[in-house]
Fold Benzoate 4-monooxygenase cytochrome-like protein P450.
Amino acid sequence: MPVAMDHLVTVVVGYTAFCVLFLAVFATVKGVYNIFLHPLRRYPGPKTWTATRLTWAYSMQSGRFHEHLHELHQRYGPVVRIAPGELSYIDPRAWKDIYQPHAGHQVIPKGTWIKVPPGEPHSVVTLDEAAHTRNRRALMGAFTEHAILEHAPILESHVSLMMHKFREQATSSQGRVAVVDMAAWLNFLTFDISGALSFGESFDSVKNGKAHPWVEISCSFGKGIALMASVNFFSPLDKLLAYNIPKKVLQKMEYHKQLVHQKFLQRMAMPNKGKSQDYVGSILQYNETKGEVKIPVEELENNMNVLIFAGSETTGTALASIINALLRYPEALQKVVEEIRGAFGSEDQITVSTVGHLEYLTAVIQEGIRLGPPAAVALPRVIPKSGEVICDQWVPGGTYVSLNQYPAYRSPTNFTHPNSFIPERFTPSNPFPSDNISVFEPFLVGRHKCLGQKLAWAEMRLTLAKLLFCFDIAPVEALGDFGEQRTYIFWEKKPLMVELRERNG
Ligand code: HEM
């Protein structure tokens, strides 16, 4: 090797070794600081998590974050330090202290672990407080009791179509028993309804018996978001990731965006576009009558993207968790079937307006969501600069805080037999009066609480009542606990294979 080349190799190797050594020393010093000197040092938590954000990021990438949080809370109590600058709570008091501004406490804004690309229009989930307030106000019209009743025919026709499809399958199958992947069908249903309420047009996944490509792409975004959330803590890795997104993924993202754009333009071209109480109609009416600051068209379109996903993945997950639990607990299944079949004489009688009063069904839904909360792990909030008191303990400014629902709902400190499906705990004859029912807030509390809660309830009640009225359901194989599935911010749902035998069929 020529002398000059030899020298170059030595310099490069030496420089690399120096960088590695520097990074190792830096990480060690930072780790020692985080454990022994950091303002959060007195909060309980394992050193492997409190020394470095890497353990948190690894857990997030493993799909087991919800289970790891549960284990940590079991071991360390109601508040755990899960990263150098982050605390997780399962204490019901944290709902008020973190999410509901009240006398003597500051507003605790959303944290920024998911960075929004520069120039991205605001939406109802934006971090900007003023833009959030105006978008939330503009959308409220689409979620009132009155609006839900206006949407009822859309909900009813979609659910009835799914029953019709199941009946068709059963009729053409051996023994007149249909076998369906219920988790997939519930996603078809909820995305179709969301599409109809956003663009006035369903994705037709139920009609076609398979996911529309847009729906498939949306459901695969969770892993990408979890990855971005993790690397955002390790700048400049985030920039490197942004430049190295595979071409295929970029193409899918572009298709996703273009389809929303195209459907949005179609919706805007509809006659009487502002008259309907769907999402677009609600915003247009707000712009016309109430909005001192109007919602620009780019924000309107961005909201559609957010709402389709927020309204469908969540409701589909809740329904999948409820059905999974019912199939594992035949006594509860029998009881809710009796309630539904005792209340209605025919499928047609089951409507959004008639299904609200079923007490045991309501309890079944709550208990099913407790075992598989759609928002299993939280988007954290960040403590303002001057610090704040959470659950009677001082938390310094800049700390990420959240109440994580999965560990909160599975904790024996909050619920008796936390891993069992016992809907009675949500009825007036609750056999476990010591349960901390106030920790159960699957739709959040405060300024960012779910806008679609009433709609979700209508969808869940209607779907379950019609399904259990029309069909006897049974598992195809032994089912595991819903919580055994992975989460990448959202649940990565496995197929839920169910046998459907038409009643009297
Ligand atoms: C069982 C079903 C559902 C559950 C468990 C659920 C849960 C939640 C939760 C926990 C949040 C707060 C997220 C955060 O800021 O940390 C939220 C926000 C939101 N949800 Fe839902 N959701 C459900 C269904 C729906 C439906 C059907 C819609 C209708 C489009 C919807 C629309 C929204 C919107 C717009 C927000 C943002 C509110 C804001 O930031 O002001 N959700 N939801």
Observations:
- Residues 124-125, 136, 307, 310-311, 314-315, 318, 374-375, 378-379, 442-444, 448, 450-452, 455-456 surround protoporphyrin IX containing FE (CB under 6 Å).
- The chain has a mean pLDDT of 92.
